[in-house]
Write a structure and sequence with these properties.
Blueprint (H helix, E strand, L loop, with lengths): L13 H8 L4 H14 L9 E5 L5 H8 L4 E6 L2 H13 L7 E6 L11 E7 L8 H10 L1 E12 L5 H12 L3 H18 L5 H15 L3 H10 L8 H10 L2 E7 L11 E8 L3
Parallel strand pairs: 1-2, 1-4, 2-3, 4-5
Antiparallel strand pairs: 5-7, 6-7
Length: about 270
């Protein structure tokens, strides 16, 4: 595994994902499975190979296996994410027939010629310190007629502010990080008028139901996710066309970015040889 200059400054997502996995059950797993089916409708996962780049908790690697993939490769830069993914897949191994391999690896490092039917990277590549290279490197793993499925931060007017905030957050003591989390959540409550306990609890439940994630975990990930880059749909389209891919599906939005950039979602198919 190689390391670039920004690698040592990357936010460590591992502890948050390890905490999240302790709460994972059938509900979260079924939601991850449904999300993949929604992203790639009318696609048979049976006997396909899949690569999960930046596997995090491992829940999407598990979803691929439960959908019938014969082999799933998972890697992450954070060693705790690697351990967490290995633990989760081993725990549910009786529920699928495919095999899996989890390792620590940097997507910016050299690909040794591995190819997969589906390459998946959800909210990861914009944290590598070189988004353009990370997207190109991810595409190298896609086999002919294979799919690249990814989510990236959209460009907003607040992107420069958030880049500075994330840098400062990552270089601050724990007390300042806790203060930043409290301020963000407080501002979020005011912005969305979640003043009553019942409204706030309902929001947390709906957030969990829609995303399969814990709101507080996401707050920590958002505030600390450095390096940080964002990209417009047009820039994605130009880059992917340049490397021999065509768009299959995308969900993009325009947003101010006051409480976060949010991710645009993409599915591209390799059309070159």
């Amino acid at each position: 595994m190689s390391a670039n200059n920004s690698s040592k400054n990357r936010f460590e997502f591992g502890e948050n994902w390890r905490s999240f996995v302790s709460k994972v059950g059938d509900e979260q797993i079924n939601l991850a499975v449904s999300k993949l089916q929604e992203l790639i409708p009318n696609f048979s996962f049976a006997n396909k190979s899949a690569l999960d780049i930046g596997c995090g908790s491992g829940i999407h690697s598990l979803a691929f296996l439960k959908l019938g993939c014969r082999h799933v490769e998972s890697f992450d830069y954070d060693p705790i994410c690697v351990q967490t993914t290995q633990t989760l897949l081993s725990l549910y191994s009786k529920d699928f027939h495919g095999d899996f391999h989890v390792r620590r690896f940097d997507v910016l490092a050299e690909n040794k010629g591995e190819k997969f039917d589906v390459v998946y990277s959800w909210g990861v590549l914009h944290h590598t310190g070189n988004l353009d290279l990370a997207l190109r490197k991810s595409a190298e793993y896609v086999d002919k007629d294979g799919l690249l499925v990814f989510a990236l931060y959209r460009k907003t007017v607040f992107c420069r502010f958030w880049k500075i905030e994330k840098y400062l957050y990552c270089h601050s003591p724990k007390s300042i990080k806790l203060l930043a989390q409290s301020m963000y959540i407080g501002a979020f409550i005011v912005r969305h008028k979640l003043f009553s306990i019942s409204k706030y609890k309902r929001f947390l439940a709906q957030y969990h139901e829609q995303r399969g994630m814990d709101f507080y975990t996401d707050v920590k990930d958002w505030l600390g996710g450095y390096p940080y880059e964002s990209i417009s749909p047009m820039e994605v389209s130009e880059l992917m066309h340049d490397i021999g891919f065509e768009e299959v599906f995308s969900v993009t939005e325009n947003s101010l970015g006051l409480f976060g950039s949010g991710c645009d979602e993409y599915v591209y198919k390799r059309i070159d040889s």
